[in-house]
């Protein structure tokens, strides 16, 4: 994490996207983040520069200043390892794929519905239909007299009369 990453947080955008019940949690988190940022900004970004030539002139012990200079310049304070940015990027890519898939499915549904609407618009108005026109337009909504069915006269409640497999009771 770097200083510019902490400055780049858009807290207003967060506040707009979360429900009212989570606003207190966001406020507490923002407060902790601001305190952390304030503590971090109180320290310099880089180690202060030291005038080593001055100390080499004033300190009589040979090699002591060189030893301190070497150790001081070898100090490295690493930032914590960023192990979440890659996960967030992957989650963002997965979400983008899901959104694209949803858009494609929705567009397909819209297209299907538009075809159905156009079919209904092209159909003869019910007020002008004869019974034969209605049966032709909605064959499943009309009980056909040439096909024998049993109650409740739904497709899934009917035995397949064309089924040639013998029943268990047939010997």
TrEMBL record:
Signal peptide: none annotated. Residues 81-123 form a coiled coil. One of its GO terms (cellular component) is proton-transporting ATP synthase complex. It holds the Pfam family Mt_ATP-synt_D. One of its GO terms (biological process) is proton motive force-driven ATP synthesis. The keyword Cell division does not apply. Keywords: CF(0), Coiled coil, Hydrogen ion transport, Ion transport, Membrane, Mitochondrion, Mitochondrion inner membrane, Transport. Its main location: mitochondrion. It is found in: Mitochondrion inner membrane. The keyword Nuclease does not apply. Belongs to the ATPase d subunit family. This is ATP synthase subunit d, mitochondrial. The lineage of its organism: Eukaryota, Metazoa, Ecdysozoa, Arthropoda, Hexapoda.
